[in-house]
């Protein structure tokens, strides 16, 4: 992001216009811009006007309609219900685009503090290329409102002041004309994730059979039961179906007049004073009201051939109507919602079993994107190529590793092989991948070398947009996220996502889980996206880095339920072994020195946690 975003502050107060010393809001807003804005902001101008619509509009237009318009205008004051409060009306009529999301964020934040926030009437939107928001006049209210939106605002200015400049190298100019420093702004991990969420396509709905292939899919509609479960009155136990008297007294010897097994077939009706042998899950004979467990009976006589029961004594007391009986629809009633929109069909079996039990054979789900995976580089050779490596050759670790990771998360993969460091070859492979897959992952070719051709190929050959090309993190700084316009099978223009990950194996795997997985989840309809985050305690001292680091670690859980993290060892980005046995990425903050044993941090879970 730009490190010199500009803001202008407009104090709307007749009192402060007469005596500027009475204003206390401006200093508070400058402090929020400086501290909560992470040093990205410069206050370019600050003015005070009276509670007058013309004065307010005149000052705003002077700022927004000139060549040096600020990125952001903040007004404070005049948003209440007093007769003189007219700031929202003055600003709203100047806006070219409304920003209801900013208004919602500000009101939600303030309402969480005090119900009186509902008395504020904020307005927000864009005039020309400047974002404008109106804040309350009280310093406290103004601070709370600005803090609610300041961290995500820099992302908005990528769109209010877009750059059409292509930042990548022109490969035809040779190494003497290449960039010596990356032209791509360094973005935070949070900003990168926000851009991924914004530019990842919405999920597509498809019709699917209810079979093993639906596992992992997310329902795009609520599903209702097509029939009752059970569809008939069924026995819960092995025993004897009876007609229970009203007083519950059933002790005595009864003739066995029939048998009901858990198999389709006709069953004779049962009269009072008769019983029928019945198995678990079998339908009750017509007329039967209850079932007595076989354990509460004694055989008193049998047929002459000794193969069938003739009379059985019932020893149970207080038999109630409906005892040991599953009534029709007692598990699931026909027409009731059994699964909600947005629920994922897990591999545990509960959801697919429920669908099958009520006769649902098909359902609308969100399509799981197909992933194309490609390695790049003249030095890369197949991992399984026989023979010794030549000087400079490197076995392709990334492709098989990322294919395995993608399949583990339930996604189908197209293996696009290895592309050499030649623009035409790379472009051809990328175009082929875009035809076959919904999302592409490439590794290598995103740093500063003269043969790092991915960014220029995406921008110059494919007409794509690189949304970010560097991230403030370790490992994975060169991670690149782009979208490319293509035509779908119907000839409609759509955008597909390309993630260009670093060539170092550990970096590629970390950035796959941190950035690619949330994009895959969004396209699949899975929410929340990304890896689950949990608090952990460090099991030993951990070194810190000037950049936020995603440290590969093993989490274990103690008898007290505490999660403890221990490093997998050396964290060099080329060392894929740092992910061997790792089940978490520790979210280590930037800093110097070390974080001591026992310190608390958050961890992103890659795999199940082990017991210590």
TrEMBL record:
What protein name does the entry list? MoaB/Mog domain-containing protein
Kindly state which keywords UniProt assigns to this record, in alphabetical order.
Answer: Magnesium, Metal-binding, Molybdenum, Molybdenum cofactor biosynthesis, Signal, Transferase
**What range(s) does the MoaB/Mog domain occupy?**
8-156, 372-522
Pathway field: Cofactor biosynthesis; molybdopterin biosynthesis
Please name the Gene3D superfamilies in this protein's record: MoaB/Mog-like domain, MoeA, C-terminal, domain IV, Molybdopterin biosynthesis moea protein, domain 2, Molybdopterin biosynthesis moea protein, domain 3
Mention any Pfam family matching this sequence: MoCF_biosynth
Q: Name one GO cellular component term.
A: cytosol
Report the source organism.
Akanthomyces muscarius
Region annotation (Disordered) ranges: 160-183
Physiological role: Catalyzes two steps in the biosynthesis of the molybdenum cofactor. In the first step, molybdopterin is adenylated. Subsequently, molybdate is inserted into adenylated molybdopterin and AMP is released.
Family the UniProt entry places it in:
In the C-terminal section; belongs to the MoeA family. In the N-terminal section; belongs to the MoaB/Mog family.
Hey, what's the signal peptide range on this chain?
Answer: 1-17
| One GO process term, biological-process aspect | Mo-molybdopterin cofactor biosynthetic process
- Give the cofactors, semicolon-separated: Mg(2+)
Q: Which NCBIfam families would you find in this protein's record?
A: Glp_gephyrin, molyb_syn
List, in alphabetical order, the Gene Ontology terms for molecular function in this entry: ATP binding; metal ion binding; molybdopterin adenylyltransferase activity; molybdopterin molybdotransferase activity
Quote the catalytic activity from the record. adenylyl-molybdopterin + molybdate = Mo-molybdopterin + AMP + H(+); molybdopterin + ATP + H(+) = adenylyl-molybdopterin + diphosphate
